[in-house]
Amino acid sequence: MSALFNFHSFLTVVLLGICSCTYVKMQFPALLEQRTGFRGVFWKAARIGERLSPWVAVGSFAMGVSIIFF
Known about the structure:
Elements: H1 7-27, H2 38-51, H3 53-69
């Protein structure tokens, strides 16, 4: 089933996207300097990961636990 139609998979994809964008921005900041257009979406995801990192970590942990038990 597509990740767009399954809410659990959609949340997993969003969390992985946020974590990936944050990692890329920390390692290669020049890649995500543009704040508008298509690359702006990734810049915004990296910004969410930077500012809400405790909540993103809790969400990632919860998704990992829920995959194990469900």
